Amino acid sequence: MTPFESSTPAVAQPSLLNRIRFQLAAGLFFACLMPMLLRYDILFAEKLTSASQYNTLVATVCAVLIGYYGLRRLNHYPGITNISYILPSFTFSYSLVLVVILFFRADYSRFFLLFSFISAQICFHVIWYVSSRVGKPSFAVVPVGNTTRLCRIKDVHWKVLKRPRLNGFPIQGLAVDLRADLSPQWQAFIADVAVRGVPVYHYKQLSESLTGKVEIEHLSENNLGSLLPSFIYLHFKKSLDILGALFLMPLLLPLFAVIAVLIRRDSAGPVFFRQPRMGFQGHVFEVWKFRTMEHVQKTTVSELEAAKTSNGDPRVTKIGRFLRKTRLDELPQVFNVLRGEMSWIGPRPEALPLSKWYEKEIPFYRYRHIVRPGITGWAQVNQGHVAEVGEVQTKLHFDFYYIKNFSIWLDILITMRTIAIIYTGFGAR
C-alpha cells in the first residue's frame, strides 16, 4: 500500500476563487469588458471615437494586470490580509496608466477609466473576502526532529502523522526536519510525496513563510550566505532614499516649524534630540529626532537604563506622547537619510548602550548592521517598540527576515503598514 492509496486525493487543490486564472478572468471581465459594454450599449448617447475606446480598454487591461501582479507579490509575505492591500495596489496601477496616458496625450474616456477602477475594487474585494472564508491552509508534519513546534503557529491546520502515510488527508505541503535522523520508512515516504507533486518544506522554511521571522540560535544552523541582501538593490535603494528625502523636504519644513513651536511651548529644552546610535556596517552616527521627553541635564541612572523607554514613561511630555503615537518624532531623521546614514526602511538603529548590551546577550545581533537602519521597518510594523533582551530576540528574527527577503516589494508592504500604524499608534511608547 503506497502512502497515497486512498479514495480521497492527498493534494489539496485550491478552490476556484483562489485560482489565478479565475481571478484574472473575473477581474478583466468586470473591470474592463463590463464597463465598455455599459458605456457603449446602455449609455450610447455619447459614443467615443474608436481611438479613445481602444486606448482606454488597453489602459484598463494593463491597470488590472499590474495591480493584480502587485497584489500577488505582496501576498508572498506572511501575515498579509489581502483585502487590506487591494485599494492601494489598484490605486497605484490605475494612477500609473493614467500618467502614461496624459504623458502621451492620448485620447481616453474618463467615465470608462473611473468605472473600471471602481469595478476592479468591488470585484477583487468580493473575491478575496469569499476566498478567505474557504478554510485554513493544511500541512502534514513528519514527527521527527523539531517539526512539532510548528503546531504553535495559529490559523493553520496541522496534521501530525503517526505513520508514514497520509491516508487521503488533503494538504498544501509536507513539513520535515531535513536535518533530523529519518528512518528508511520516513525517507521513502518523503520521496514518494515529492514525486507525487506535493511540496516538501524544511520546517524552518515553512515557519519563516508563516511568521515573518528567521530564527537563528546556533552557528551550525545559520546559513549566512542565504541572509546576504542584494547589494544591487542596496545601492539602488540608497539613491531612492535620497531622492525621496529631497522631494519631501519642502513639504516637511513647514511641518517641522509647527512641531518646533509646540515642543518649545510644552516644555523647556531643545527642539531636537540627538543621540549616537549604531548604524550601517557598525559605524556610529548621530540620529536626529524631535524631543519627546523632559530635558534633564544630569541623571542618576545608568546610560543603559536611560536609553530604555517603558510603557507610560513619566519622562514623556504631553506633546511628546502625541508625536510618539503618530511617529512624527521620527521625521527629522530625513536629515540622516540625506547624509546616507539611514534609509526610510530598515532595522531600527539602537542607542549605543543598548546595542552593546544586545551584542553581548544575543548571538548574531551585530549582523543586522549589514543593511542601513531605517525610520520604519519590518520589526516595527509587526512588533512595535521593545527594549528587553527577550523581546529584542524576537525583533532580531524579524530583522533577519527583512534582510533575507530584502526587496522593493517588502519595502512597499512596510510602507503601507506604516501608514496604517500612524493612524492606530501601534507599538508606541
Protein described:
By secondary structure, the protein is of the alpha/beta class. The protein folds into three domains: 16-131, no CATH class; 138-211; 231-424, no CATH class. Helix content is 50%, strand content 8%. It is built from 14 helices and eight strands. It has helices at 20-42, 50-74, 86-104, 110-131, 184-195, 203-211, 231-266, 303-307, 318-326, 334-338, 352-361, 378-382, 389-404, 408-424; strands at 138-141, 157-160, 173-176, 200-202, 272-278, 284-290, 343-345, 374-376. The strands form three sheets. A four-stranded parallel beta sheet has the order 2-1-3-4. Strands 5-6 form a two-stranded antiparallel ribbon. Strand 3, helix 5 and strand 4 (200-202) form a beta-alpha-beta unit. Helix 1 packs antiparallel against helix 2 (50-74), helix 2 runs antiparallel to helix 3 and helix 2 runs parallel beside helix 4. The protein is flat, with a radius of gyration of 26 Å. Mean pLDDT is 83; it is low at 3-10 and 42-46.
